[in-house]
Amino acid sequence: MGTTLAEKVWADHLVRKGGDGAPDLLYIDLMLMHEVTSPQAFEGLRLAGRKPRHVDQLIATEDHNTPTVDIDRPNPDKTSALQLSTLEKNCKEFGVRLHPLGDADQGIVHAFAPILGLTQPGMTIVCGDSHTSTHGAFGALAFGIGTSEVEHVMATQTLSLKPFKTMAINVNGKLPADATAKDIILAIIAKIGTGGGQGYVIEYRGEAIRNLTMDERMTVCNMSIEAGARAGMIAPDETTFEYLKGRPHAPEGEMWDKAVAYWKTLKTDDDAVFDKVVDIDATKLGPYVTWGTNPGQGLPITADVPDPAKIADATERSAAERAIKYMGLKPGMPIKDIAVDTVFIGSCTNGRIDDLRQAAAIMKGRHKADSIHRVLVVPASSRVRLEAEKEGLDKVFKDFGAEWRNAGCSMCLGMNPDKLVPNERSISTSNRNFEGRQGKGSRTHLASPAVAAATAIRGTISSPADL
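RE: above sequence
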């Protein structure tokens, strides 16, 4: 019997096979680190008198707690300042490479690594952050780990894991012009639910997936975790190789040829069997947006807010009632009637150069609605910011009335100054819309950069077709 992409990468990194219910021991190629989940791991090494086993396979950046304005001034938040300074001290002490705030390669941990060419097909990649699944877009087996596991990887460059189940999600047919990668993943989560991928590594397949750019593939894999999956993967192809070639850490010369030859073997065999298969008709997709308080509570933008009374399942009905109350909505109201206060374009889901180009193309020559309180455009990394400014996108955003910020996690989560106030409503290109995610009492609708830009123009949730 053939093997899947995930099974091939697993087998290539097997240090020791577990037995009698014991986990396997896997070698880890790369661990990414940031200020939030690393302090306890460093302290664990310090107390045990250990040093990192392979320090050259660890790399850190600052992202969650970083301000996105006035970055050259002292951080006004004492907790954030302490976390950032602690990371800097730890990296210096243990010799871990760090890209701090103000560095040209600083950025969200899942954005700066691909740009540097550190993320490559067939690798095992971990980070103390759930959205590590982003790197699966390259055909890497990438997933988030806990703080104790971060310490274990630092000390041994290995990780004990039980094999995952495998799921194929086939996105068949061509994507309509008004649908984006974000709409694909929101539609998938709406279909299988936030627990539908639990215990699985998802492989995204099909014509619509193959036609995506690398930036778009990263968006899809990024939100695998929102479906409950352990990881998401896409088989590497010519699009992958073209993206990687010439990047700072990509192989060169003869080593490039050898790498590509290996990367081409990283595809699921025709006779491989997945534990579960889901089919999505890409031709029927369009702009999606969430109405509730988890990423699975999403619908086409043309739909109405659900009426809980019409939901048969008692658990789902109760969840819908709570979500509608929290979000300040009314059952049956058109999603397009929902007025928004703030627009956020950024995050490790949609803060890449393709995303900024998409938003700028819609905003160019227009101005934000008077009812919109603010529009934040935050590149996912400093390199993305530099590229956007080279293309003049920053001018488009500023002329539109948006704030052009420095790189960081920003308003994706309430761990830095970019927060919403209670009952403030945002449309956000980030990945989570939980209660209080963007600030205490905040109300978040997830959408693509295109929908976010159109909403900023009209003041209510809109698609570019509504302009």
